Fold Cupin.
Amino acid sequence: MEPIHELTDLTPGRLPDGLLAAAQPVVLRGLVSHWPAVQASRRSDRSAVDYLRQCWRGEPVAIMTGAPEIDGRFFYNDDFSGFNFGREDAPLPAVMEALLELREQPRPPCFYVGSTTVDTCLPGFRAHNDLDVGDPDPLVSVWLGNRSRIAPHYDLPDNIACVMAGHRRFTLFPPEQLPNLYVGPIDFTPAGQPVSLVDLKQPDFERFPRFAEALANGLQAELGPGDAVYIPSMWWHQVEALDAFNVLINYWWRQSPAHMDSPVAALMLALLTMRDLPPAQRRAWQGLFDHYVFQADASTVAHIPPQARHALAPLTADGADHLRAHLLKRLQR
């Protein structure tokens, strides 16, 4: 496994030119080292907790809880009928105080607050701790807990993950490694995204032999407070929180208009309508998708008058609404 490419000597808070269009991940050392929240965390865990408490305004957070035996791996249960953790709501200060109290235990229970919107949970945090990613309205989330291992998964948006407190290890795989990651169900998942079934801490190469190829193409880096990593859309990534108290702030944005729906909808519809067709018909539909979607260019519709292209015209907000209504009508038949 190779290290993720790193950029150092950055101006804190300033993204390198061209980063947001990059197709490869990049570690950004010290990118948010100027944040007051990072500086508080460098003093102590208690200082970090006190800083976040000042930003909290009473909104409860959703917390995932697991027994010590899961070793921080929030995952399925043994027979895949459910999961190895529970869920509950709790005040954020109470969660953080519990984490501080558990720091000295060799095998504590596992606590994980994941993907919680900063502006809802910690209003005011971004007034002094923020990053300009160029998007007019990025989704900014906080992730908080003790030691955890979140299985390899992909996200549709591009992502900059910023370590506020503790240390995190990121293990990344390019999108083409999908066949070697042994991904589980796509509609029954621990936290919304399909995940690899391989335990990276102790891979079972007899059960998952192709995972060796994924490891050979993987990238890895460990980040501390003030560091960040850019993860392009669709890259698979495992995130490990390595300390007894960890906080991550991440920025998500899409390089597409807001009127575009998630491609996951197309995948689900393809499973519903095409996967079980005879092989010859699947090949024919593959050709149609290549022609109209994956290899489409100006020549695809050049023979059709512009005013008559309808769904084949460049997608606009009105066009997206029309397509959505047409699709819903067909699904209701």
Q: What stands out?
A: The chain has a mean pLDDT of 95.
